[in-house]
Amino acid sequence: MINIVIFGAPGAGKGTQAQLLAEKYDFLHISTGEMLRQEVALGTPLGQRAKAIMDRGDLVGDDIVAGLLARAISLRSTLPSPDADLDPIDIERKGMPHRPEGCIIDGYPRTVQQAQTLEFLFRKLDRKIDCVVAIDVPRDELVRRIHERAAISNRSDDNEDVIRHRIEEYDLKTQPVLDYYRVSGLLVSVDGSGEIAETNTRIVNLINRRLGL
Ligand code: ADP
User: Fold this and answer.
1) 124 Rama class: left (phi>0) / alpha (psi -120 to 50) / beta
2) How far is the CA of 210 from the centre of ligand 1 (A)?
3) Which segments of the chain have a pLDDT < 70?
4) Could you give the 3-state DSSP secondary structure of residue 190?
5) Would you say the CB of residue 114 lies under 6 angstroms from ligand 1?
6) Distance, CA of 211 to CA of 209 (rounded, Å)
7) How far apart, in Å, are the Cα atoms of 34 and each of 24, 105, 129, 161?
8) What are phi and psi of 135, to 5 degrees?
9) Which helix (H) or strand (E) holds 200?
10) Most buried residue among 40, 93, 99, 154 by CB atoms closer than 10 A?
11) Are 114 and 62 in contact (CB under 8 A)?
């Protein structure tokens, strides 16, 4: 079971890259931002608590996020058996399907405390983080992308003031997580300033080399 964390500032493209990697390796994609937006859209009590916080660009409390994360990372053990409902024609065409043997986590951890929470949860599940991929994008390019995204996004936290605050939150609370993983030797950095496909190739090469995939 391979566990990869994708790390980056708002606008670095971690959601896009995490999605591409999950498809490529057939891993589970876990995005705390997406899970929170889903709770908001469904109007659950948790979503109602999170909405105002997200709309301000603040970080949602770990009491809320850790529960969502714990549910998502333990999901694998409850997936149906890989042999269930197999269509023989499909198998002939595409080969035997396989269950995800790993996960790509995006948007968590965002604080050192969350990094410790993740470690604790993984230890309980007898799992560990194999690699933390930090997507590096220069600040002026981040700002450019964010302006571009704000113009077309329908996310309620994608307006310029809120985005600025999300970057401040990143600098203050999330940046220190990089040092946390640097010390443990898990951190690898990738230049994310170019096109999506280019960054993706860099990350895939790096993961393949590092994890022997
Ligand atoms: P981005 O990285 O572009 O800010 P995300 O989708 O990862 O986008 O996160 C959107 C918002 O969801 C954050 O600004 C924050 O309010 C909330 N959020 C997501 N993940 C976490 C987390 N791990 N801890 C606290 N808040 C989170």
Assistant:
1) alpha
2) 27
3) 75-100
4) strand
5) yes
6) 6
7) 20, 11, 21, 21
8) -95, 115
9) helix 196-211
10) 40
11) yes
